[in-house]
Amino acid sequence: MTRTEIKISGYGGQGVITLAKLITAAVIMHSDNLEATQTESYGAAARGGACWAEVVIDEEEIDYPRAVPGNVDIGIFFTDEAVGSFLKSVKKKGGTIIYDPLTIKKVRAKKAQSLYAVPALETARKEFSPVVANVIMFGAVLGLTNILSKEIGKKAVEGFVPKKAVDLNLKAFEKGYQMGQEIKIQ
């Protein structure tokens, strides 16, 4: 794996920062040959304000911890504002765009980009609880991109979420991973 840059954006309260920290924890705690850094930004209003996070993954020591605009490999978006602000950050050739269609009206991708709609929030509301939408998205991202194995993802969830919520989050992760695999095939 060469350097992989991920940009996640939405509103505070949607689990944007937590999703980035989960991806980073998965790499740092459960992979043997990868390094990761995570950066974030959020407004004064934690809930409802715009926020973003970035994760950089590499086999080598990471010399620059930020995603480079126009070089983002995977863009994960939870709001129309996020798409408007950061869609151009995703690579035009080979970039992957993942978004939640419940919270985003429309995303236009370039022909050389992969575009995936993952109904994480709708699935969380119907089958689990809205608080696990980001874990569903985590599973879907791994199922779609193979940046990390399913086993590493499961270990990360087990070690990252509060003990009383592990079972719920593992089910949400499994559902997300399955969704990612199914969407990828379509």
Can you offer a commentary on this structure?
By secondary structure, this protein is α/β, with parallel strands linked by helices. It has a domain at 4-119 and 145-158: Pyruvate-ferredoxin oxidoreductase, PFOR, domain III (Pyruvate-ferredoxin Oxidoreductase, domain 3), CATH 3.40.920. The protein has six helices and six strands, in the order E-H-E-E-E-H-E-E-H-H-H-H. The protein has a six-stranded mixed β-sheet, sandwiched between helices. Helix 1 (16-30) packs across helix 5 (150-160), helix 3 packs across helix 4 (133-145) and helix 4 (133-145) packs across helix 6 (166-185). The two termini are 25 Å apart.
Query: Radius of gyration over alpha carbons?
Result: 15 Å
Look at the structure and name the CATH superfamily of the domain at 4-119 and 145-158: Pyruvate-ferredoxin oxidoreductase, PFOR, domain III
Question: What is the tally of helical segments?
Answer: 6
Give the helix proportion (percent range): 25-40%
> How are the strands of the largest sheet arranged?
2-3-1-4-5-6
pLDDT averaged over residues: 94
Keywords:
6 strands, Pyruvate-ferredoxin Oxidoreductase, domain 3, six-stranded mixed beta sheet, 20% strand, globular, 6 helices, alpha/beta, 186 residues
Secondary-structure map:
Layout: E1 4-11, H1 16-30, E2 35-42, E3 50-58, E4 74-77, H2 80-86, E5 96-99, E6 114-117, H3 120-127, H4 133-145, H5 150-160, H6 166-185
Parallel strand pairs: 1-4, 4-5, 5-6
Antiparallel strand pairs: 1-3, 2-3
